[in-house]
Amino acid sequence: MLRTELSHQMFPVQGTPPVRWRISDGLVPYEEAVATMEAEVAAIAEGRAPELVWLVEHPPLYTAGTSANAADLIEPDRFPVFATGRGGEYTYHGPGQRVAYVILDLKCRRQDIRAFVGALEEVIIRTLDSMNVRGERREDRVGVWVRRPEKPILADGTVAEDKIAALGIRVRKWVTFHGLSLNVDPDLGHFTGIIPCGISAYGVTSLVDLGLPVMMADVDIRLREAFEQVFGETINDP
């Protein structure tokens, strides 16, 4: 079912510093990313650092959220598998996929996790809209979806659709971490080693798969613009 929500604005309190915006080059090992997030969460919770959005790409790997079902890991020896404290089930990360770790202090915004997830979805939807791609929410499925009318109709008579972005978050002392992943040009065959997010009835797509030969740097610009529309000002993080 289509979920037609308005934007979930997550305004900071007056005087809150701009959110740091960091982009890492190359492929960041997952263990390194988790350690960095843990340190940033502690610093932000203690008021020692401003909030942070950190954009990375990872080498091919699977992650298991707190709701992961072991049966959904179809090829356990294909890529490294990491248990993680974020919500959700199995996901894939790899080259060509933009992962955004969103580390925000909800005490300075809205202490509403559902609204925060909706705001992340809104960032993705606005990013896609800037590239003339219509991303949609679903009541029964977290993430952002794209209709594929060129594909065969599903068994229930509805139009086929694919997932283009996944979300999985964790919150500690009202500071968020983990975040979202947007498929720009990953190897979509790598998703076949899992049942992504425990959903087998739908496919996975990417911007390039949809016919948009975009570069990661271009997507990053649009992602930042959309983030600022929903969450507020950012500043480059050295």
Q: Structural class of the secondary structure composition? A: alpha/beta
Number of helices: 3
Strand content: 25-35%
Average of pLDDT = 91
Molecular shape: globular
Structure explained in plain terms:
The protein has 238 residues and is an alpha/beta fold. 21% of the residues lie in helices and 30% in strands. The protein contains three helices and 13 strands. It has helices at residues 30-45, 113-129, 216-231, and strands spanning 2-3, 19-27, 52-57, 61-64, 81-83, 90-93, 97-103, 136-138, 141-147, 161-172, 175-183, 203-204, 234-236. The strands form two sheets. Strands 1, 2, 3, 7, 8, 9, 10, 11, 12 and 13 form a ten-stranded mixed β-sheet that branches. A three-stranded mixed β-sheet has the order 5-4-6, with no helix packed on it. β8 and β9 (141-147) form a beta hairpin. α2 (113-129) packs across α3 (216-231). The longest helix is centred in the middle third of the chain and has 17 residues, at 113-129.
What secondary-structure arrangement, pairings included, does this model have?
Blueprint: E1 2-3, E2 19-27, H1 30-45, E3 52-57, E4 61-64, E5 81-83, E6 90-93, E7 97-103, H2 113-129, E8 136-138, E9 141-147, E10 161-172, E11 175-183, E12 203-204, H3 216-231, E13 234-236
Helix pairs in contact: 2-3
